[in-house]
């Protein structure tokens, strides 16, 4: 019995109102849910007309019309209060709705009763009073239901949105965690081989790799990264790879200043550069060239290209195929920008592969 009373929310039980309170930021987040559609408004008006018409049935002709107007006014007033509570179902608004309807309705009702009594229509006055009271109680109960249901609905919606945000963030971190070791393991494997073979290039490579990791890894903890910043990370990566491959690797970066400010999920550009080196340069004894280009199109869309002059895609490969890194890159672009971003692969006419990231003009605003 003690645990039963301890589990009761006495504030809600005694105040008989909504129990959840929301912050200004949460109200702003819920703004798209607070509008009332024109269809609902028209439906509510028709119901008010119909209900008022029903309530004046069997009343004397001289009383029916004024009573209809009074009932309709009361119904419209209560509906406006219900709309106010619908938009913000709080304890404060619920009691404002009760107060804003009780006083004017009581005044109008009392005035009408006095007129009918003065005309010797006491029985009719009593009938109108009972019908008006029934109408008021019906709407008061309806407003209470609206306040309680909407308050719980919005709290559940916020909870679901929070869970979705946590899931998206966990997925983003997981895909980032899968990209970074991919590069690290490849580089460390090469370093291990050089150390084991006592190659003089091991020490410079270790220095370059250490410098690269110290400068760039903190960037990958961000949810978004400017193209210019990741291009700099790609440049450092290419320096490391050039230390490994020597003259077999040639590279060039051409990043338009306007495109450099556009933000993408971290690791997308680096993954494409890493793939270009791995599949476009390393298989060839004579090496190859990797070019990174980024510019804004006339409509403001971002066009990011990573080109190589290697063997290109296999004949049966499709533009949607790719490694785990490419799969993660597509997934992270989808999480951040939905259908406004795309990552495609294709063969170049002059030979080699072209990886293209396109981001719509309004793609800078990630999906919430």
Write the layout of secondary structure elements.
Layout lengths: L1 H5 L3 H6 L8 H6 L8 H18 L5 H27 L3 H28 L3 H75 L5 H15 L8 E2 H19 L3 E7 L1 H4 L2 E2 L3 H14 L6 E9 L5 E7 L15 H14 L3 E7 L5 E7 L9
Helix pairs in contact: 4-5, 5-6, 5-7, 6-7, 7-8, 7-12, 8-9, 9-11
Structure description:
This protein is 63% helix and 11% strand. It starts with a helix and ends in a 9-residue tail after the last strand. The strands form two sheets. The protein has a five-stranded mixed β-sheet. It has a two-stranded antiparallel ribbon with strand order 1-3. Helix 5 runs antiparallel to helix 6 (91-118) and helix 9 runs parallel beside helix 11 (268-281). The chain contains twelve helices and seven strands. Mean pLDDT is 82; it is low at 363-368. With 368 residues, the chain is α+β, with helices and mostly antiparallel strands. Strand 6 (341-347) and strand 7 form a beta hairpin.
Features:
63% helix, 368 residues, disordered C terminus, two-stranded antiparallel sheet, 7 strands, 5-stranded mixed beta sheet, alpha+beta, 12 helices
In short:
Helix content is 63%, strand content 11%.
Shape estimate: elongated
From the N-terminal CA to the C-terminal CA, the straight-line distance is 45 Å
> Helix-strand pattern, N to C?
HHHHHHHHEHEHEHEEHEE
Q: Report mean pLDDT, rounded to a whole number.
A: 82
How would a crystallographer describe the biggest sheet? 5 strands, mixed
Report the count of strand segments: 7
Strand order of the largest sheet: 2-4-5-7-6
Radius of gyration: 35 Å
Helix content: 55-70%
Strand proportion, as a percent range, falls in 5-15%
Helices, by number, come to: 12
Note poorly predicted spans: 363-368
SS content category: alpha+beta
